[in-house]
Design a protein that fits this description.
This protein is mainly α and 239 residues long. The protein has helices at 25-37, 43-55, 61-82, 89-111, 122-133, 140-161, 171-175, 181-199, 207-218, 229-235, and strands spanning 4-8, 16-19, 118-120. Strands 1-2-3 form a three-stranded antiparallel sheet. Helix 2 (43-55) crosses helix 6 (140-161) and helix 3 runs parallel beside helix 9. The longest helix has 23 residues, at 89-111.
């Protein structure tokens, strides 16, 4: 079995990047337990989160900041180019049909051995390639297993913090003092956003959340009918 598969382009869209993993039962069960503890996630997305945390160990602060800023800028450009779209029943029906087509196409490509059992965004696909090429890991499976202790620790620390956004001030809110008029305006906007999020019990997006938002806007990746949160909510009549 080929562990790292070449990208596959479908219908002139952005490629699907994938690898094959064969996780030890205890690791697979751990990931599925984490999925069961949360909403709006999946086996695939949980592994993505572990890999992003692991990758951060090998990147400098400047590299991470540059990538983060690039994602925000790309998201803004995408929003300006594509414009907004109202989430009408017709929109969700179109979304559902597209998800079904993607699922059928994915099943076909996996049966042909052209797509692996773990889809990855390009940056994580390249990270897995780098770890294998460097000799640090022999297979994508080993990369995922190496990432798991860091996901585990992150989840434990998140539980200690209480998870999500609470009603008290964040640490940086207590310490940060804007020095310019522009900084003051941006800081006030930030506080307004936090206030609205708290009022609606909405969490702040972390780096993975922003990446997912940008990928959604770009139309990247595959929608898994069994685990995609939007599809779940459509089927449950929540939209």
């Amino acid at each position: 079995m080929e562990h790292i598969l070449p990208p596959v382009t479908v219908d002139d869209r952005l490629p699907w990047w994938s690898v094959n993993v064969d996780l030890p039962p205890e690791i697979d069960q751990e990931i599925r337990r984490y999925v069961a503890e949360e909403e709006l996630t999946s086996w695939t997305l949980m592994i993505h989160g572990a890999l992003y945390i692991y990758r951060a160990l090998f990147w400098t602060r400047e590299q991470l900041r540059a990538e983060f800023e690039s994602m925000i800028e790309e998201g803004c450009r995408s929003a300006e180019q594509d414009g907004g779209r109202e989430a009408t029943p017709a929109f969700w029906e179109e979304f559902r049909q597209k998800a079904e087509r993607d699922a059928e196409r994915l099943d076909q490509l996996q049966a042909e051995g052209k797509v692996g059992n773990l889809l990855l965004p390009k940056e994580l696909y390249e990270f897995v390639q780098e770890r294998v090429a460097a000799g640090a890991c022999n297979t994508p499976t080993e990369v995922v297993c190496a990432a798991m202790p860091y996901l585990r620790r992150e989840r434990e620390e998140s539980k200690k913090r209480g998870g999500g956004v609470d009603d008290g001030p964040l640490p940086e809110e207590e310490q940060f003092i804007p020095r310019t008029e522009c900084g003051k305006e941006l800081w006030e906007l930030r506080k307004d956003v936090l206030k609205e999020l708290r009022a609606h019990n909405e969490p702040l997006l972390d780096a993975e959340g922003i990446r997912r938002e940008v990928r959604d806007r770009r139309g990247e990746g595959h929608v898994d009918m069994d685990v995609d949160p939007h599809v779940k909510q459509i089927e449950e009549g929540k939209y």
